[in-house]
Write the structure tokens for this entry.
Amino acid sequence: MKTQLFAKESACAAIVETGHALIEKKLVAGSWGNISCRIDAQNIAITPSGHGYETLTPEDVVIINRDGEVVEGKHIPSSELKVHTAIYNAYPEAGAVIHTHSIYASALAAMHHGVPAIIEDIVQIIGGRVECAEYALCGTQELAENTVRALNGKKAVLLANHGAVCWGKNLAEALLAAEILEKAAQIAVICAGTGNKVYELSCEDVDVMHDFYEKHYSKRQQGEE
């Protein structure tokens, strides 16, 4: 799957549509969480700070550069723009970033626990076990650095006492990663509640399944293979 770049107008419209999907899928509430996608090598479209997704319009979306400076827009960009730009700078193949406050992922984040690699889809799409980044105040450079460090090549990370961040080559993939992460977190919480042992997939199996997804299955999903 290739990194998807949008024209500015298309990017803003796609972010609004993704915001509606986050509400529908109960991955965020109110104005919490944030969404961004790349327009080109230097510019990023990102949700504004403090605006609910139900009433968000394409005109509300803010354009920033990779340094986090506002290029265009009438609103203040998301307070988590440093996390977004840090991910784009660390992963040039990233085309979109989504920050959620979903219930089960947030529950594990509150315990400073990661999401174990116990189901195949989290392995295929995200790349294996999802770690929990060390706590730092929202909006800080420290949080951005902790986030990238804990990602460690994966497409998702938990933020201690906060929520989760996922990235993908496009908004659809980032949204899928957020859904699968929440599903895996829910399964992990259910398993922990039984008191029974949870069996994680082996590193070898993780590598095989993620490699297959990246090279073949993701392309089939897009009609490219």
